Amino acid sequence: MRKRDPRIVLGLHRSRYERRILTSALDLGIDAIDTSFNYHGFSAHAALATVGSDLLPRFKLSTKVGFFPAVGQAEHSLDPDRLREALEQTNRDLGRAPDLVFLHNPERSLPGSSSVAQDTLGMACAAVERAAAEGLCGGWGISSWDPRPLPSLVDGTIPRPDAVMVRAGLLAGIDSLEASETLAARWDLNPTQLWGMSPFGGSATQPLWGKLDPRLFIQDPDEGLSTVQATFRTAYWLPRVGGIAVGTDSPSHLAELVDTLRYEANTGSLRTYRQLLRERADRQLL
Description:
The protein is α/β, with parallel strands linked by helices. It has a single domain (8-285), classed as Alpha-Beta Barrel (TIM Barrel). The chain is 37% helix and 17% strand. The protein has helices spanning 19-27, 39-42, 44-52, 80-94, 114-133, 174-186, 227-234, 251-259, 267-285, and strands at residues 8-11, 32-34, 60-65, 67-70, 73-76, 100-104, 140-144, 163-167, 194-197, 218-219, 243-247, 264-265. Helix 6 links the parallel strand 8 (163-167) and strand 9 (194-197). Helix 4 (80-94) runs parallel beside helix 5. It starts with 7 loop residues before the first strand and ends with a helix. The relative contact order is 0.13. The mean pLDDT is 94.
């Protein structure tokens, strides 16, 4: 068993919720898992408890609330009462309180008016913060697929989260990267409190990764570093995050990702890349 390393969180978005990936994660030094109330057809928590109830005490467990079952689809809501009910059900299904609960994609339900949006976000954050104080979770945060609307709403009146999770990596886009960094700065979060997600933009096997060579963003890469591994490691600096939630049901793939943590960034290449992204975005605005 490897020494614990907090920089990788096993994400369970598309997971089959098999016991072997949980035991493999622990063997590789990964003791954090991330899921959501709405994953696995709104049965993720129960499925996780079924296959690994004896393992769950060994993990730091994060989950998310914000999406709810509706007729034929899922619907999003920031209603404090619904968030509370979801947290109570989460505790029942898991058989324990999660260590961290993220408010899931709050931008989905923010009104157009900035003052009303601020009030809506503030009440939702306060509801999750209150739940944490009452022991329904160890802490709370915000997970945002599109953080661009959020920084302007943070002015000191909205509770400060323990963590923020945002998209990371080469497909995140400059506006998303800058918004994520601004949001973290508004709440005075340190790098360990900013999490990344979706480092491969949804799939590590899509053809795009065969056309790019992300190893140029790695300092002193060796021949053993694959493009998939370099893509994953680069995501830690786009934006700068302390950990990344990544999903896989393959123990060997997970081991390959763990192996990337020994590499460091080529800061010059990353700086140039971000500058080019910003210049391209500015030209599109003209």
